[in-house]
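User: Sequence in, structure out. Go.
Assistant: Echoing your sequence, followed by the structure tokens.
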Amino acid sequence: MENKGNQNESLQMTRVLGLKESISMTVGTVVGVGLFTSGSAQIGYVGPWIIVFTFLALLVSIWPALIYAEMSASLPLAGGTYNFAKRGLNRMWANLAGWHYIVSVVAICSGETLAFANYFKILIEQFNISVSWIDSRVIAILLIIIFLMLNFRGIEQSGKAQTIFMFFFWGCSVLWFLYMIPKIHLAYFGGFAMDKLPSFRELMYIFGLIWWCYTGFETSVSMGSEIKYPQYTLPRSLKLSVFLVFAVNAAFQWFLVGIVSHNFYGQLAHAAAPYADGLQLAGLAGFPIILLCIGIAFGGDLSTINPGIAAPARYIYTMAEDGALPGFLSRIHPKYKTPSVAITLVGVINIILIATGSIDYIASISLISLAICYMIGCLSYIGLRKRYPTLNRPYTAPYGIFGSYFTIVIYTLMLVYADRLALVTAGMLTIVCLVFYFLYTRRRGGTDIALDKEIGVVEEPDKFEKEKIDKQYLVWKWVTIAVTVIALVMYLAPLIIIR
């Protein structure tokens, strides 16, 4: 495929995703395996104080989300951090960010398929059908194949499916919340609910896994070439998504705290499916588990797998088009207008990670690689501010430079206390990336075209369309504010009542 400046327009990706799809893609990527496996299992260590960790994770996610909002509105291209780093730093940093992002998001996707398999098997067993003989990895691989086919056929179809998955998940969640409210024990929200306070190293490790429940907040950025009116849609979706993720995480964690007695925390800490296992420990088998597993498996999990394939495929496509990876990976399907070869490669990497069968190991790899990618993104932001001071910025992040340095320090601290084996894996990935860069990528100059030509013409909505998207954003904004406030009040109310 030729460079961007010479591409045939018929082989370019099209801008078809709006605010609803952007939010669904982003929230769908984030709300899934982290919340329903490793993240909520930490309640077994910190009890009701999980809300403190979740709120702190929100605070250290807001600034990078706003920083990415500014960069994505200015450079609405496929590839996200790779393109930001290429322009703000250099191609070596861009390649490092790209490799870590691809591995991280694919890890989220593969972990999600394993989570789906676990919850799906628990769901089937509620009907007295034994499926313990089925390897969860087989179910996960079959699911990957299905979603490869969906993504292969086009981003518009994938975007529609994503919206359906997310609204199905939210619908099941609300029904489950309403059903479970009478079964909440407010007394469970009192005290530390643990024999002793974990060490600082343990607390940082726990915080890292809870922060992982926010990673992927910039998923829509990686599909910048397919976002309609990106100068408005991308900043808005990023600002809303990070708070929606907090609300969903906090709400589900509140119910798990209120359902499971402190006496079962030891078992909850090591549960593969904390919510289903928690209900069983509380003696609430049957309908509550069935409804929960249907919502998580067919809503939450599927909504993560879908963008978990789409987003890294766009990175691979962009890097291949720029000469950072072999050129055949940048091929666009003539009928479906999708990076079909890149999507296939994502499927292969998924299957390799699924073969490990370890969600905790996959989670640690993912959070480390994404933290590295985000730190490079923050450095890119600083570089873009210095190199392109006159660049059109439809949105400007408040105190962006300071926020970038702050984020780098916090994420570095998290990495120091991350899982050692996963750190070694990330280190090996970094070495392989650098070797590949110096032996292959550096010899290829990449696309050398003016920034304005690379971005192309970004369509401005007419008056009627602008009013329409502004109204849509206003609705999403107030819904986000409402659910965020409700999530916070849910934790404050039991403490007031107990006193």
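User: And one key feature?
Assistant: Confidence is low (pLDDT under 50) at residues 1-11.
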